[in-house]
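idk why but the lab printer keeps eating my pages so im just putting this in chat instead. protein + zinc ion:
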Amino acid sequence: MLALAKIAPVTGGIDFVEREPRQPGPDEALIEIRAAGLCGSDIQIWKWPPHLAKRVPVPCVLGHEGAGRVAAIGERVANVRVGDNVSLESHLFCGKCYQCLTDRAHICVEKASPGVDFDGVFASYVTVPASILWVNDPDFPAELGAIMEPFGIGVHAALEGTGVCGLTVAINGCGPIGMMNVAVARALGALKVIAIEPNPLRRDTALRMGADLVIDPLEDDAPRRVIDATRGRGADVVIEYSGQLAGLHNCIEMLTIGGDLRLCATPTRTVEYDFTVWKKKRPTIHNINGRRIWSTWVRASDLLREERVDLKPILSHVMPLSEGLKAFDYVFAGEALKPILIP
Ligand SMILES: [Zn+2]
Ligand SMILES: [Zn+2]
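predcted complex ->
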């Protein structure tokens, strides 16, 4: 089978390779992939920063956002059956460590991900531990199944801390997950949703996803606009997706005193911070990583099944896996929101 892989430990270094599907071990399942999402993390693997150069075993089939049909299972697997329509949770968890035993499997100490630590979903088949499979309704579309993983981050971020119901929510950075978070905040009863994003295509999409106000942080003083839009209070909840140093400072500035700051992106550089600002603002900071297993998946599925959230505006490019390299180009050009690859 054709698989899209990191083939060389350099910037770029991504191409197609020929792979054989691997028969599942006792606790594994073989999944026939029907759709896979191209993620910012895949773009990071293209860019090849030091922390990924240390982590990704080359060659490695990329992709951690996938959905498909269970084609075969190992002898000890009981949570899925052959033929099930499944999505993949991308965080492998051991089920035994302190974090797993205290309802935090999403930050398991043994955490590993397909497409990063071992072969992923940019192929016709993938073999994974059955423990990371979520069973969708039989008729749930594969394109949506493939983005349950990033969608779940938006759902997780919206439900954490004070939640969003009745509150003003500012979403800083509207990549695909930020945009999905706009729709989730709307669906969960936010009073007002403000989206901050420099890319015009993404700002338009944020409006289509239900934002009340969009701000271009390069043209406008984003904290000022948010404070003005909240009767001088600042936002109750600020969710940070930009990963930018300036963005992070803006987030704290636009937050109301004692508000909720939820960090989804990781700044790529060391951040210097003046804690006298902190003493004044007293934010509660939530570090959002992945999805709570499986409570976030339950909520995420409900939102889609009941059609409270429409993710179609995100699915800008649904294309054959064989054109996967083009999908990277579209993302680099800022033209694609969330390319979906169909093997
Ligand atoms: Zn991802
Ligand atoms: Zn664990």
